[in-house]
Amino acid sequence: MSKNIKFLGLLLTLIIIFIILLKGLNVSKDYSNEKLKSKIDFSLNAKKLFSDEIINISDLFDKNSPSVVNIWASWCAPCREEHQFLMKLKDMNINIIGINYKDSPKNAKNFLSSLGNPYSEVITDNDGTKSIEFGAIGVPETFIISGKTNEIIKKYIGPLTNENLIEIKNLLKKNA
Amino acid sequence: MSNYLGNYSLYIALIASVYLIFKSYLDANSENKYLDKNFILITSIQTIMITVSFFSLVAAFVISDFSNETVFNNSHTLKPLFYKVSGTWGNHEGSLLLWLLVLSIFLFIFLLNSRSQDTKYKLLTILFQQIIISGFLVFILLTSNPFKTLYPIPREGLGLNPILQDPALAIHPPILYLGYVGTSIIFSASLASMICGNIGDKWARHIKKWVLVSWVFLTIGILLGSIWAYYELGWGGFWFWDPVENVSLMPWFCLTALLHTVIVLQKRNSFKEWTIILSITTFSLSMSGTFLVRSGILNSIHTFANDPSRGLYILSFLFILILMSILIFFFNQNKISNTAKENFILSKETAILVNNWFMMFFLSVVLVGTIYPIFLEVLNGSKISVGPPFYHNLLIPFLIPFLIFMSFGPSLKWIKDKLKKFNYNILIIFLASLLISYVILTKTENSFLLSIPLIVLSIYLLLVTIKDFFVSKSSISQKISHFGFSLLITSILLNGLFSNEFNSNMKVGDERIFNEKVVKLKEVNVTDVDNYKSLKASFEVTNKNSSFALYPEVRIYKQPLTITSEADIKTTLFSDNFLVFNILKDDGYYNVRYQYKPLMIWIWISTIFIGFGGLLSVIRKNEQKY
């Protein structure tokens, strides 16, 4: 009898693990899903890179039009690569908010002073938790966020390309 | 041409597999005394077919046949020949084909090597091994066929990820797979012996070879992966607790436990059920590793493939295998004859049991750290990131009792040992290690209370294992492996304690002073090499009375456009000086990271010792019976 209970218990545990892992497979499918409609928690506080002042991130977003959030670090080579595209976005008068991921403030400032600063504001994310709140899995990542509804309209994993740039322009026009 | 050859030989191998499954099942139920000659024949045909298939993929890579989709996606005509060949297994499809190749070759060797074994046992091992082989064959043919053709034929391939173009990584997957796949033989053989009811000292002696072989390959495979991460990723560490690294470490803990348990089974004929459970778990962990890496369920810098339909298949296959093994275990449990003898607290058996507890604890910590984020995300949608602090906080304190046990466990006698009279040797060694630790610890400022017992005990263990070379009667292979392990722990601890680094932006001609050393950037040369553009910097590091040069490099690859940093590392017996730089912009400034890492080379050397001990035990036939 006790052998059967052991067996059934083990079987049940296995089935539960199986179901969870099965669900996990689908979760990771949603991960890069382009139409993910999750919201950003606007009550988040963060420290500014240049002034060390702590602010509420909702102040950074334009309430009437979508903004671009870019997660970057000075040590990340692909970020360097995509920087030129961010500069182009800035030239189109687009509000870009930078999240500086696990970086030393000194290197980050050096990076921006040498390559140009495309961001309207940069907040620091020393331990990577702010980026997790945004659902990021690494650097660089770029989000288009609606100021009205706090929703993520679109998410790009990895460095931006020229094609993405055109897409972002169209998206912002559509959602303005 | 090679596409058709590769593809159809896989189908022939599948037919052979199906035939062998039915034939072995039928024969196992009959009372045949001898193994049908067809088994060796069909198995060799299958092995040859899979080898042909594998080498036709290698050939496609070598001649850059871009009508093959896998070659098109992962190769390029400009790539050096060595990386064209290693590109074969540097991708999802090819690596699975390699898995399959090793699976079939191992089964073939197993058949040749176990002539003296019972026929039914051999038949059942073939049955289980063929179930695994057919599972992989179907998986490859359905979801990851490496021989898909492209038309029109592209003129140029998309290239291989440049961070994978490294000699250590080129041979890392094959070695690691030899370890993983070796556990499949242990799995099949233990299920077969469970049904035959022949688990005992004889079986232990027979399976121990396979345990050792898999363990040696797994150890060396993990070492190579770690060396690659250290030299190529340019982060200056050798272990990042990345999920993909963890999945290779988990079967290693389990296999290490099994390696010790199987010795108890051989000498004392006990721990029967535990041996079987460990065999099943080790293989399940190896398979889960494949699942976690290949399904894209983990998000890690190492996961290069991402396809949920593949994940679904491996997950189902994995659970069918686990379910099958649990059923077999429970319904044949009564066949295990109870030969367990009385265990005394102070005996080698108990010491090995304690070793197993520790291995299981380390395994659970790593398992939880790797799997829990996935579970949490499914259960309540929250994302957590488990990093090195979690592992360090949970593992390091438990090293203290582990080191204590390891210092006396191996020298205990079988059955029952006595507390001896006070041993002056031990006292002298202990005092010596106290003294050495004191000298070491006064040289550092960043020591914590915890690091004192750790350093003392690791040095104590190191001295004890050295002493064992002269006095202990245990086998030479065990002495070498245990010595290697204590050296590894000592090197890692001292390396962690004394490492330091600086990070700065420099332009040509700049100097930075760091820890009484002057680091100077002398020049940067730009050159064009076959498939990338190279920026080679020349640094000079001047010490009080000596100086040396370091030449780190930034490579800008053309296909696909990727920038990688090649660190330059000056290695001596005492320390590594690690320098890596990055381009900032065209204004002449470079981001420079310099690291001083003591005893780095001993981490590699000690792991080689650990593996070498195992290897010696495989080769030496007349291994002393201790």
What does this structure look like?
The complex is a heterodimer of chains A (176) and B (626). In chain A, strand 4, helix 3 and strand 5 form a beta-alpha-beta unit. Chain A contains five helices and seven strands. Chain A has two domains: 31 residues; 141 residues, Glutaredoxin (3-Layer(aba) Sandwich), CATH 3.40.30.10. By secondary structure, chain A is of the alpha/beta class. About 6% of the residues of chain A have low confidence. Chain A has a seven-stranded mixed β-sheet. Helix content of chain A is 43%, strand content 20%. The longest helix of chain A is centred in the first third of the chain and has 30 residues. Chain A is elongated, with a radius of gyration of 20 Å. Chain B is of the alpha+beta class and 626 residues long. Among the domains of chain B are: 161 residues, no CATH class; 101 residues, no CATH class. Chain B is 62% helix and 12% strand. The interface between A and B is large, with 35 and 38 residues.
Question: How are the elements arranged and paired?
Answer:
The complex is a heterodimer of chains A (176) and B (626).
Chain A: H1 2-31, E1 45-48, E2 54-56, E3 67-72, H2 77-91, E4 96-101, H3 105-115, E5 121-125, H4 129-133, E6 141-145, E7 152-157, H5 162-175
Parallel strand pairs in A: 3-4, 4-5
Antiparallel strand pairs in A: 1-2, 1-5, 3-6, 6-7
Chain B: H1 2-29, H2 37-62, H3 69-74, H4 81-86, H5 92-113, H6 119-143, H7 167-196, H8 201-232, H9 243-268, H10 272-295, H11 308-331, H12 348-380, H13 388-408, H14 424-442, H15 451-471, H16 476-498, E1 500-507, E2 511-514, E3 517-529, E4 532-542, E5 547-550, E6 553-557, E7 562-566, E8 568-571, E9 575-583, E10 589-598, H17 600-619
Antiparallel strand pairs in B: 1-10, 2-3, 3-4, 4-5, 4-6, 6-7, 8-9, 9-10
